[in-house]
Amino acid sequence: MIGRVHSIDTFSTLDGPGIRTVIFMQGCHLRCKYCHNPDTWKIKSPSSKEYSVDELMKIIKRGKTYFEASDGGITFSGGEPLLQYKFIKEIFIRCREEKISTAFDSSLYISSNKIIDLLPYTDLILADIKQMDNKKSLYLTGSSNLLNLRNIELINEYGIPLWIRYVVVPGWTDASGDIKKMAHFAAGLSSVERIDLLPYHSLGMHKWEILGLKYQLQDTIPPAQSLLQKLSKEISAISGKTVFIQ
Ligand code: SF4
Predict the structure, then answer these.
(1) Could you tell me which of 196, 183, 192 has the C-alpha nearest to residue 228?
(2) Contact at 8 Å (CB) between 181 and 133?
(3) pTM of the model
(4) Which of 103, 121, 185, 218 could in theory staple to 16 by disulfide, Cβ–Cβ 3.0 to 4.6 A?
C-alpha cells in the first residue's frame, strides 16, 4: 500500500503531546479561505512523495527514543489525512506493535465509517472545528459543518481523547455567538481534554499566488493577544475545559 505524503516534520511539539513525527498527507477536499497549505489540496501533486508502509515506518521508528522520553508519538496531518485512511490504518497497526502512540489531526468532514475503522488504533484525535454556524461554514470552507460536528460527537461516544482546534480568524470565526456555541458544544463532550485556539496568520498567502488562486483574506489581520486571551477565558468559563493559545 502506498501513501501520498506532502512533507514530514520529525521534531514537532505542536501537534499533540511530547515530541512527535508529523506526517502531512497530500489531498484535501475542503477549501478553507485561510488555508496556509493549498499546495496539499490536490491528491496527485508533483511535489508530493509516495511512501510504502515499510518506508514510512523506517522514518517513524527513528524517533522512538524521543517519543519514549517525552510521551510523544506520531500525528497524521495534512491536507486531510483521512482521505488516505487505509494507509494510515496500516501505519497505526504497525505503531501499535512498536508501542508508538498514534494521533491524527483532521477536519472530520469525512464518512463516519472511515473514522470508526481507525478508532481501535488511535490514541488521540485533534479535531478541527471550523465554524459552528453552518451557513458560515459553507462560506468559509466550501462545506457544511454537519458531518464535522456529528463525527466529533461520535468519537466522544467511543471515548477517544479529543483536542479541539479552532482557528480564530477576525471577522470570520470570532463572533461572540459562534464562540459561545463552540464552548457549549465542547462542554457536552467528556472526551475533550483541551481546546486549542490557533490565531489566523497569512503566511501561506504566497502559496495561493504561486498556484494562481485568489486569496480572499488579504485584508484580514491576525488576532491581537488581548482578543485571544478574552476568547480563551470565555470558552474556558462556559466549557469547563482548559484552553491553550497556540
Ligand atoms: S482542512 Fe486544512 S488543508 Fe484543507 S483547506 Fe482547510 S485548512 Fe487547508
Answers:
(1) 196
(2) yes
(3) 0.97
(4) 103
Q: Residue 17: what are its φ and ψ, rounded to 5°?
A: -70, 150
- Alpha helices by DSSP H, listed for 39-167, are 53-61, 64-70, 85-97, 112-118, 134-141, 146-158
DSSP codes joined into one string, 166-182: EEE-TTTT--HHHHHHH
Measured from the CB, is residue 80 less than 6 Å from ligand 1?
yes
CA of 65 from ligand 1 middle (Å) equals: 31
Q: Is the peptide bond before 79 cis (omega within 30 degrees of 0)?
A: yes
CATH number corresponding to 2-167+190-197: 3.20.20.70
Q: CB of 107 closer than 6 A to ligand 1?
A: yes
User: 137-179 pLDDT, tens per residue?
Assistant: 999 999 999 999 999 999 999 999 999 999 999 999 999 999 9
Domain ranges within the chain, ordered by starting residue? 2-167+190-197
* C-beta contacts of 218-225 below 8 A and 24+ residues apart: 220/34, 220/169, 220/170, 220/171, 220/172, 221/170, 222/170, 223/168, 223/169, 223/170, 223/174, 223/199
Cα–Cα distance, 23 to 28 (Å, whole number): 14
Spatial CA neighbour of 244 closest among 19, 14, 10: 14
**Atom of ligand 1 minimally distant from the CA of 79:** 3
